[in-house]
Specification:
Layout (H helix, E strand, L loop, with lengths): L9 E16 L5 E9 L2 E7 L14 E11 L2 E12 L13 E10 L7 H11 L6 H4 L10 E10 L4 E7 L14 E6 L2 H12 L4 E4 L2 H15 L15 E3 H4 L12 H8 L14 H6 L3 H26 L4
Parallel strand pairs: 3-5, 6-10, 8-9, 10-11
Antiparallel strand pairs: 1-2, 1-4, 2-3, 4-5, 6-7, 7-8
Helix pairs in contact: 6-8
Length: 323
């Protein structure tokens, strides 16, 4: 996220945090500095040429007051620093850019087992769920698999603004759903394709994405369903990157079978509102959808996204190691 500075702008007494410093040389052998600067709106690159180094006092991790000008090079705007000095009486936290962050959770509905053909039934029971001993219960788990299910709701929450939106499937009905919380607005869709289109439109406004088990479930499910619906996914989802945070991977104990905790158990341990306390769980969504209880589904997914966002803020402040 770049700071909004126009080319050829005079910069006077502006304050920035020095994020990093790199020493380079011109073709003639003169040393110069390349700094990465930030404030609450973003980051920008700045150069201190050799003839101005004597007029510049700075430290990485400190706030500086600078004078100079902006310059555009190869379509990118940066700063040329004429002079700068360290400012000691300001909090560096105020100069860290706020990254637009979206916390989200999806709910899915599966086809009835009887609607699958013989090959699909065999594949579900003897491949995907071959370790399930109770085959009658296994027949109810079609919603877990994107080739046998579909997305019926997505809860999105912005922890920076404390506002959220729920996208909910209400096929064949033109109805308005009433949000359980004033922090949310709800949008209804007649089909999954348009619901997915709207979700990917929303994601283009954000740079960081937070889920609980999103690496293994939410993102793959959304991507596969988008392909099936011929909806364009506008970005590459890179697991384990700084831009895609799966809290199930971040808050776990070891790497064994029982190392990944259930969201509701973490909420209880960390003093966060449990989204399932109202008596709804993900396993009931298919049944609720069949009963056209769309508002109940929307409320449930909104609580899931909200609780995940609160857990994320705790992880970010106390557990991530970020300064």
């Amino acid at each position: 996220m770049a700071i909004n500075i126009t080319p050829n702008e005079l910069i006077r007494d502006r304050h920035f945090l020095v994020v990093s410093k790199e020493t380079k040389q011109t073709k003639s052998g003169d040393a110069y500095y390349v700094l990465e600067l930030s404030n609450s709106s973003g980051k920008i690159e700045a150069k201190i040429w050799n003839n101005n180094i004597a007029h510049c006092n700075f430290e990485v991790g400190k706030i500086i007051e600078l004078n100079g000008k902006s310059q555009e090079y190869n379509g990118k705007v940066g700063l040329i620093i004429d002079s700068c000095q360290v400012v000691d009486n300001e909090e560096t936290a105020n100069y860290s850019p706020t990254v637009p962050t979206l916390v989200f959770d999806i709910e899915t509905v599966g086809k009835k087992f009887e609607e699958l053909d013989a090959k699909e039934q065999d594949y579900l029971l003897n491949n995907l769920l071959k370790n399930d001993e109770d085959k009658e219960e296994a027949k109810k788990k079609t919603a877990l698999f994107s080739i046998f299910g579909f997305v019926c709701a997505i809860g999105c929450y912005n922890p920076g603004t404390d506002r959220g939106i729920v996208l909910c499937l209400t096929p064949g009905e033109s109805r308005e759903l009433v949000p359980e919380s004033e922090a949310y607005s709800y949008e209804c869709f007649a089909d999954e394709k348009n619901l997915l289109k709207r979700f990917w439109e929303i994601t283009e406004k954000y740079e960081k994405f937070v889920t609980y088990n999103g690496d293994n479930f939410d993102f793959p499910y959304l991507i596969i369903r988008s392909g099936i619906n011929r909806v364009k996914v506008p970005m590459a989802i890179k697991k384990w990157s700084d831009d895609v945070i799966d809290l199930q991977n971040k808050i776990r104990q070891g790497s064994g079978q029982h190392s990944a905790f259930k969201l509701e158990m973490l909420c209880k341990a960390f003093g966060v509102e449990n989204p399932k306390e109202a008596g709804v769980s993900g396993g009931e969504v298919t049944s609720l959808f069949e009963k056209k209880e769309y508002n109940t589904i929307a409320d449930y997914v909104s609580r899931d996204a909200f609780s995940t966002s609160r857990l994320y803020l705790i992880w970010k402040e106390y557990m991530s190691g970020e300064k």
